[in-house]
Each structure stands twice: as structure tokens, then as C-alpha cells.
């Protein structure tokens, strides 16, 4: 059951614009950066960030995607193994000595991010790995902190954050469900 609507299309757009500016500022440009979206919604958010960065800097940022299957405890208990599994890495650029910016929709336990970091490290040694998320909902199980956050939303552990994006859900919104 939907409890609250947290972000609408305009609020998501503003958050992504702010994150794009923060990425450029923190990294003093984008020359040594690669945006890597964690599928599914993180990949779409990474594409939007890439477009915003391109419009600000007048040049394209390198990008890629990771496909991680996660047996999420907030969605189902299909298996006792709740560890995320990296299914596919689609990064066409060398990550060696680059600043890899992982992009995801919701930061929760930190397990998805850990799996994504492992996948990046398996293909090369980046200079740095940063994390950009639309929503940070807390409840970390691992020592993971986002460098760029669209919105912090403290939640109860039984609540769910639902991110909908136009590319697959035909609307942009972030809601809390009980």
C-alpha cells in the first residue's frame, strides 16, 4: 500500500541536475570519469546523468552498465542466499586509473554496491570508485556511503521505496510503500 509520494518528475530532474553538477565539480571535469549504471533503474539514471553532464560540459562522459541480479529481502524470499550476483558487465572503456562513478536508484543494505565494486575491480584497477544514488534509505549492513545523494529518506525496515522511471514504468516518481 502506498504511504507517501516522495519525489515527482520535477523533483527527480532537479536531484539529477544537482548530482551532475556535483560530479563535475568534485572531479574537476569529466576527463577521467566513467559513469556505470547498475541495471535496471540505475542504468537509466546514469543515462540521464550523462545527458545532463554532456549539456553542462559540452562533451560526453564515458559510461557503461552492470547487470546485477539481487535476491532482495525487501521484495521476496526466493532463496536463502541474499547476495547480489553480477550477471553482465558492459563497460567498453578501460577502468584503469579512472574514476568510476556507480549509479543506482536506491541505496539500502549496501550489498548491491559491494557486488558492483567487486565487478569493477575484476575488470581493472580504477583510481577511485564513487557512488551516486537517487535515494538513500538507510539500514546499511555494510560500511557503504554514497558520494552523491538525490534525497535521504529515512525508512522503517518493513517499508519499501519504489522508484518508477519513464523509460520502463511510463512515469517518474518515488514512493514509500508499507
Task: Record keyword descriptors for this entry.
178 residues, globular, alpha/beta, 29% helix, 3-stranded antiparallel beta sheet, 6-stranded mixed beta sheet, 4 helices
Could you explain the architecture of this structure?
With 178 residues, the chain is an alpha/beta fold. The protein has one domain (2-74, 99-177): 3-Layer(aba) Sandwich (Rossmann fold). Helix content is 29%, strand content 34%. It is built from 4 helices and 9 strands; from the N terminus they run E-H-E-H-E-E-E-H-E-E-E-H-E. The strands form 2 sheets. Strands 4-3-2-5-6-7 form a 6-stranded mixed sheet, with helices on both faces. Strands 1-9-8 form a 3-stranded antiparallel sheet. Strand 2, helix 2 (41-57) and strand 3 (62-69) form a beta-alpha-beta unit. Helix 1 (9-26) packs across helix 2 (41-57). The radius of gyration is 16 Å and the shape is globular.
Q: What secondary-structure arrangement, pairings included, does this model have?
A:
Layout: E1 2-7, H1 9-26, E2 33-38, H2 41-57, E3 62-69, E4 85-91, E5 99-107, H3 111-123, E6 128-136, E7 148-152, E8 160-164, H4 166-169, E9 173-177
Helix pairs in contact: 1-2
Quick one: biggest sheet?
Answer: 6 strands, mixed
| Distance linking N and C termini | 5 Å
CATH topology, by name, is Rossmann fold
* Outline: globular
Using only C-alpha atoms, the radius of gyration works out to: 16 Å
Per CATH, which architecture?
Answer: 3-Layer(aba) Sandwich
| Strands side by side in the biggest sheet | 4-3-2-5-6-7
Oligomer: single chain
Tell me the number of structural domains.
1
Structural class call reads alpha/beta
Q: With helices defined by DSSP (H or I, 4 residues minimum), what is the helix count? A: 4
Amino acid at each position: 500500500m502506498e504511504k507517501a509520494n516522495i519525489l515527482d518528475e520535477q523533483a527527480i530532474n532537479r536531484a539529477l541536475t544537482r548530482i551532475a553538477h556535483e560530479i563535475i565539480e568534485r572531479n574537476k571535469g569529466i576527463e577521467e570519469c566513467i559513469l556505470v549504471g547498475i541495471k535496471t533503474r540505475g542504468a537509466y539514471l546514469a543515462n540521464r546523468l550523462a545527458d545532463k553532464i554532456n549539456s553542462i560540459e559540452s562533451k560526453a562522459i564515458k559510461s557503461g552498465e552492470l547487470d546485477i541480479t539481487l535476491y532482495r529481502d525487501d521484495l521476496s524470499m526466493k532463496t536463502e542466499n541474499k547476495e547480489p550476483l553480477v550477471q553482465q558487465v558492459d563497460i567498453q572503456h578501460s577502468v584503469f586509473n579512472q574514476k568510476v562513478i556507480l549509479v543506482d536508484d536506491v541505496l539500502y543494505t549496501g550489498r548491491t554496491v559491494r557486488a558492483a565494486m567487486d565487478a569493477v575491480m575484476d575488470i581493472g584497477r580504477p583510481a577511485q570508485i564513487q557512488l551516486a544514488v537517487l535515494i538513500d534509505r538507510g539500514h546499511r549492513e555494510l560500511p557503504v556511503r554514497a558520494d552523491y545523494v538525490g534525497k535521504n529518506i529515512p525508512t522503517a525496515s518493513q517499508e519499501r521505496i519504489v522508484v518508477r522511471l519513464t523509460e520502463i514504468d511510463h512515469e517518474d516518481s518515488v514512493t514509500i510503500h508499507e
